[in-house]
Amino acid sequence: MKQDSLFTRAPGPPQPIEQVQGVSKVVDYIRRLISLNKTLAGMRVRGEVSGFSNKNGRLYFKLKEGTDVLECVVWAGDAVKLPPFKDGDEIICGGEFATYAPRSQYQLIVKSIELTGAGVLFAQFEALKEKFRREGLFEDSRKRPMPEFPRRVAVISAKDGRGVEDFFVTIAREAPFIQVLTVATRVEGDGAEIDIAEAIDKASRMDVDAIVLTRGGGSYESLFPFNREPVVRAIVRAKHPVLSAIGHKPDVHLSDFVADVTCETPSNAAHYFGGIGKHYLTRVQRALDAIEHAVRRHYTARAQRFDEVSGSLKRAADNCINKGERKLRQIERRLDALTPQRRLAQRGERLAGLRSRLDSLARHTLAPAGRRFELLRAKLDASNPRSPLERGYAIVTLDGRAVRDSEAVPLNAVIEAQVQRGRLRARVEVKELDA
Fold first, then answer.
1. How far apart are the C-alpha atoms of 129 and 252, rounded to whole Å?
2. Residue 40: C-alpha distances to residues 70, 95, 282 (Å)
3. Mean pLDDT value across residues 16-30
4. Are the beta carbons of 94 and 111 closer than 8 angstroms?
5. Which residues are within 8 A (CB) of 287 and not within 5 positions of it... i.e. 6 or more apart?
6. What is the pLDDT of residues 233-260, one digit of tens each?
7. Which three-class secondary structure state does DSSP give residue 323?
8. Which contacts qualify for 389-394: CB closer than 8 Å, 24 or more apart?
9. DSSP-assigned beta bridge partners for residue 155
10. Which of 1-5, 281-285, 328-332 has the highest mean pLDDT?
11. Cα(60)–Cα(224) distance, integer angstroms
12. Which of 16, 28, 154, 323 is the most exposed place for a label (fewest CB within 10 A)?
């Protein structure tokens, strides 16, 4: 069979190839060069995926390395056999090199794909995620509620690092009422997931209200121990609620999916506990405002009662005086009918008697009212909660409740003292009991 002149040469000295050829012949020549090249036939290509698209089951993408690009296509029949991948993944592709004549480009018809680096880890992540999802580990019904007012928290983290440092600084500022116990562990590298799981089990045996699993940001590979099965299982079996705060805002880990509470960063975890404290301080302030309102209302009612009693006493005294004056005028009229001396004597006697009766009447009428007045005023003063404050006393509260017994207050507890002007907040370092 006669071969294409582009691929054959006449015997003898090299002959110049005809300089003018049709487009189809040139395109076919290039296609043959590529398809028959033995080096290309066994070659696999490593690169970064870019421009990924799926059109009716066929996959199109580019492999990039620096500024160089290789077009790739996967036919629908082969696509279902390949592992999932996406833009940004580094992969190794095998297949057949070919040309696409309508666009005058060469491309790789991909038959196999091997994930490398983060791509392999992502495939493991998706497989574990599906496994745990089928087991129901992500369900909210399985998760434990965080205590309303945690007082002791175990923090699992590396010994040092910016993320855990931010957590400690923030929680000391916003939630000083929480005692933080540290469980140091290795958080990256081969086998780190075993160390982290053991740290969670250790925290579960501690007398704490919650466990915080945290570390700062890092690469996908360095953070991957928090996706491993030992860590996920340890979180699920923990005896206390677990808060997961790993990496930065875009990072998502399987530890976040199974944790009882999830925060985007270590600092946000500290803000979470600070928010609990602010919530309870608001409740205490509202309770104090309600007490103060009730006291003012009670004081106003007592003051009104005092005014009513005072008015009644004044009216009773006025009536007594008026009656006395009327009787005195009657006596004066009678005395006027007597001789001057006798009238004067009788008037003096009667006047003395009236004065005595008037004094007795005043004593019997005004004295009980005066005593009742003093009693009411004493009760009113006793019911005013600010009276002891004016004498230097203070109202001490713990969690919004008045403290009457020092035995009921634990060491390191944060208490509040209401004095005459303002409030004080203190941490209990020493307590002494009365003998």
1. 11
2. 13, 9, 73
3. 74
4. yes
5. 400
6. 999 999 999 999 887 666 678 999 999 9
7. helix
8. 389/418, 389/419, 389/420, 390/420, 392/420, 394/418, 394/419, 394/424
9. 182, 212
10. 328-332
11. 29
12. 16
The pLDDT tens digits for 364-420 are 777 777 777 778 777 777 666 667 777 777 888 888 788 888 887 888 888 888 887
Helices (H), 240-339: 254-258, 266-336
Instruction: Read off the pLDDT band of 118 (50, 70, 90).
Output: low
Both tokens of residue 352? 């003395």
CA–CA separation, 261 and 173 (whole Å): 21
pLDDT in tens, 59-98: 999 999 888 899 999 999 999 888 888 887 888 899 989 8
Q: Within 10 A of 173 (CB to CB), how many other CB atoms are there? A: 10
**Residues 6+ away with beta carbon under 8 Å from 224:** 121, 125
CA 171 to chain CA centroid, Å, is 11
Q: What's the DSSP call for residue 408?
A: G
Q: 287-319: buried (b, 16+ CB within 10 Å) or exposed (e) per residue?
A: ebeeeeeeeeeebeebeeeeeeeeeebeeeeee
Report yes or no: 413 and 431 within 8 Å, Cβ to Cβ: no
Q: Which two tokens stand for residue 354?
A: 């009236």
7: pLDDT strictly greater than 60: no
CA distance 73 to 77: 12
Q: What's the N-to-C CA distance of the chain in angstroms?
A: 120
What's the rounded Cα separation, in Å, for the pair 416 and 407? 16
* CA 207/CA 1 separation, integer angstroms: 90
Q: In this structure, are residues 214 and 156 in contact, taking their beta carbons and an 8 Å threshold?
A: yes
Residue 207 has pLDDT above 80, yes or no: yes
Helix (H) or strand (E) holding 222: helix 220-223
DSSP 168-198: HHHHHHH-TTSEEEEEE---SSTTHHHHHHH
User: Residue 58 pLDDT more than 80?
Assistant: yes
Half-sphere exposure (Cβ direction) of 107: Cα atoms closer than 13 Å? 19
Task: Label residues 231-255 b or e (16+ Cβ within 10 Å = b).
Answer: bbbbbbebebbbbbbbbeeeebbbb
Residue 12 amino acid letter: G
Q: How many residues does the chain have?
A: 435
Buried b / exposed e along 2-40 (16+ C-beta atoms within 10 A): eeeebeeeeeeeeeeeeeeeeeeeebbeebeebeeeeeb
DSSP state of 19: S
**209: number of CA atoms within 13 Å, CB side?**
13
Q: Beta strand 58-65 with 68-74: parallel, antiparallel or unpaired?
A: antiparallel
